Amino acid sequence: MSNIVVENLTHTFGRGSPGELTVLEGINLDFTSGSFNAIVGTSGCGKSTLLKMMAGLYAPTDGQMSLDGKEIQGTARERGMVFQQDAVFPWMNVSRNISYGPRLRGASKAECKDIESKWIELVGLTGFESRWPRELSGGMRKRVDIGRVYANDPEVLLMDEPFGALDAQTKERMQEELQKLWQVTGKTVIFVTHDLEEAIFLADRIVVLSARPGRVRHIEDIHLPRPRTSETRLSAELLGIKRRLWDMLEH
Amino acid sequence: MAAGHRKHSRRILLGGLSIATVVSSYIWLTNLPGNNPSLLPPVTDIAEAFYVNITKGSLFDALGASLFRITLGFIIGTSMALVLGCLIGWYKTVEYIFDPLIEAVRPIPPLAYIPIVIIWFGIEEFSRVLLITIACFLVCIVNVVAGMKNVPKVYVDAAATMGATRFQIFRTVAIPAATPFIFTGLRIALAAAWTTLVAAELIAAPSGLGFLLQEGRRYFLTAQVMMIIVIIGVCAFTMDRIFRTIQTRLTQWSEAHE
Lengths: 251, 258
Fold this sequence. Notes:
The complex is a heterodimer of chains A (251) and B (258).
Chain A: E1 4-13, E2 21-31, E3 36-40, H1 47-55, E4 62-67, E5 70-71, E6 79-82, H2 94-98, H3 100-104, H4 109-122, H5 138-151, E7 156-160, H6 168-185, E8 188-193, H7 196-202, E9 205-209, E10 216-221, H8 230-234, H9 236-250
Parallel strand pairs in A: 3-8, 3-9, 6-7, 7-8
Antiparallel strand pairs in A: 1-2, 1-4, 4-5, 9-10
Chain B: H1 2-30, H2 43-56, H3 58-90, H4 92-105, H5 114-121, H6 125-149, H7 153-161, H8 166-203, H9 209-218, H10 222-250
Helix pairs in contact in B: 2-10, 3-4, 3-6, 3-8, 3-9, 5-6, 6-8, 7-8, 8-9, 8-10, 9-10
């Protein structure tokens, strides 16, 4: 039951000033409950801005957004976000990072323990519970990031190029594991990326934004069978979609 | 691990050597023919001054008086700096009100307030503690504000999107992220407290380490002056070490400990 609706959303930086810049224009989108969605576009198309607005970190200049019919205003636990940068709190060990959200709401020690062990196992960090983030690799820290947001039990997960900084191999592994997490939890994911293969591999539906100002140019439904594997990446179907979307981004 | 260990022992060895060199050079100088012991008192004289001042009880009195002033001034000054610094660093309105004031006052050396404090409050205990408080406050608050402003935005956003309230973000993100800065502020404040203490006691005090220094100068007791300098050095060093140990404990997470 988590339907995000974006209606007529427009955003202009520095409105009224000579350097006025419209980054998003007339965006209408509807993300169905439990779906995996990707938003792609060339850099500067405002995809990241759009995601941060859904998170409530910025307010749009114009238009409405709602989650389950409730207007989106400011940040809330229902809309969790994984950032491109490393957002793991370096002053908390892995376990405490994972249970950060529940602790904000005064969860008991026992509840936190349960949540920690469940998510640490699901994101593959068993054995690293009491490590400091600085002792982990970039890929492992991303696991903490993702586990922490899932452990907070949001309705929707907003992901802003979460694997952008990882090496190719780690990235592919993380994509497969994210797919698994999504299948296990059934929570809506909105995933921003500029990597077409990543988008096709992960998503049920891809929103292609045009370059500045960002408008919805195309919506592509992906019907590749799940679970998708490294074989999927080489399939003719995936490559065909990739070529088509690539041309669309070019022109 | 072994390499780290070797590095550590080399550090202790070289550090010890450098101190030993300075001390033995001093001993060598005092033993030169024609040395004037009123200018360069031999180590034995310094030790004797130490012994005499301990048996008289004057050293403990002075130490007690000085440590009391330092502790009180430091606690009041840094507490105020912590509270106001956090508010300035976290709330724009508070920043706009206080920042110009603090920026204007900050470059004035705390010692410049000695005359006005004496004119207003006399040569009283209050004046000395007040001066140390001012010194600690001013050097500490700058670091606290810097710490609060340097909290990476992505941590604040991450906490917010997990449903943290503004106050929860302050408590669970801003404070821990600023801890290294806050500790730097505390340690600089401690150094400033010693400077101000000795200056204030040199000018106006019936007791304290600065008073013993002044007494030594007045009666040409050079050995006593030297002895007090060493005592101040040892005290200031020990206190700083204690803070450093606490800091290391509290910021184990930081990259600096890798």
